[in-house]
Amino acid sequence: xxxxxxxxxxxxxxxxxxxxxxxxxxxxxxxxxxxxxxxxxxxxxxxxxxxxxxxxxxxxxxxxxxxxxxxxxxxxxxxxxxxxxxxxxxxxxxxxxxxxxxxxxxxxxxxxxxxxxxxxxxxxxxxxxxxxxxxxxxxxxxxxxxxxxxxxxxxxxxxxxxxxxxxxxxxxxxxxxxxxxxxxxxxxxxxxxxxxxxxxxxxxxxxxxxxxxxxxxxxxxxxxxxxxxxxxxxxxxxxxxxxxxxxxxxxxxxxxxxxxxxxxxxxxxxxxxxxxxxxxxxxxxxxxxxxxxxxxxxxxxxxxxxxxxxxxxxxxxxxxxxxxxxxxxxxxxxxxxxxxxxxxxxxxxxxxxxxxxxxxxxxxxxxxxxxxxxxxxxxxxxxxxxxxxxxxxxxxxxxxxxxxxxxxxxxxxxxxxxxxxxxxxxxxxxxxxxxx
RNA sequence: GGGCUCGUAGUGAAGAGGCCUAUCACGCCUCCCUGUCACGGAGGAGAUCGCCGGUUCAAAUCCGGUCGGGCCCGCCA
Length: 436
What we know:
Elements: E1 15-27, E2 32-38, E3 41-47, H1 50-54, E4 64-73, E5 81-92, H2 113-118, H3 120-123, H4 127-149, E6 153-154, E7 160-161, E8 173-176, E9 179-183, H5 188-198, E10 200-208, E11 221-230, H6 234-255, H7 257-262, E12 276-278, H8 279-290, H9 302-315, E13 320-327, E14 344-352, E15 355-363, H10 367-378, H11 388-395, E16 401-407, H12 408-416
Parallel strand pairs: 3-5, 6-10, 12-13
Antiparallel strand pairs: 1-2, 1-4, 2-3, 4-5, 7-9, 8-9, 10-11, 11-16, 13-14, 14-15, 15-16
The protein binds one RNA strand through strand 1, strand 2, helix 2, strand 11 and strand 15.
């Protein structure tokens, strides 16, 4: 019966079978070490028998094999345990030399990222590389746990749409049996519709953006963590996001400390209540500190986003910060303006380690106002199949509600201290990469 | 879409008019090696220097074009 690499230490003195991939061989003459990789990690096998070593001649890293050997406690072995007197059985021989080496950390220098992605199917077998995605899986688990605790219902909305929805961002158009369809750039309207059903909903799913952006934080396809909830206000939304980021971070460092250490991730400083600063104040402080004048600008420059996170990290002990008081003139039609300051939107962005990871806002829930804003801001037609379902729900009674969208890859990237979203993406898609 | 940059064995790098018949490291192949864990040692194979054209007695190196990357900005998660 097969034993997992992580389990071998539970069978001292016993002969066990381990199956997996040949990850590394070191031939020292009369003694050969090989590492076997399975889903739990690596286990070292010591070979003395020349005929066993010969079985590996000409076989490359990646060869699939089973090993029967005696478990021996050995302080010199990585993990304190190794297999002795092993008999090898080659299950799938690999004879073609792999194009990249996976037994040591892969290069993540910007200019070499292309190679990293070109050989992803193999490179992902590297332990540091797979650890990134093992952790991403834990992040989504932590998110789901948190949403479940807060009484959210997970939903799945269509990605194939009849028409563009949000407006603004470019959408992908595709041929749909001779008609034109688009790829969802956000589940925005569907999650709002579902607020009328469940009050609290979330979705973790891909979204598509046809923006020709070529930066370290953009992709044409990414995973959006979208949530929407009824009967809240903007400060409660802020509190919710504070708790969520803290929950995920604490969960991660508690459950995967060794993995995080392996990839040299340092736990971010995040205060229980994430500080909030108005955009105007950030402009002022940034302008004062750098000599650049951004006062009056309607958005934050990327450099300001980096600067303010450094600033709050040092002065306020939080590498995450909310940006509040966005100008209402740039609102989307479904957004809500602040009740006492109609020139400002009821919107918050969450910046984390220099990058915007969340945009959240209160939505306009009064049917007549949404209708008015749709015409004014988006020049939208209420009969358009892109808008009609949302309006139908609004007319049927929608409570005050708000929500947010968070980039899963950006969150992963920043939690792990990576420098490009694509490093936190299994098979990244950008303006010039559609494969692998 | 705009600006700036970079393309040299499978991978990562050095070479910046003649010293290049292109150097090094890792990987690969052969041999040696009984505690490796980026094992070590000896030897070997592997590159028409992204592509096209130009300048020059001479181009990996200079110029133009082209193709492919990267970074920044705009936009956003």
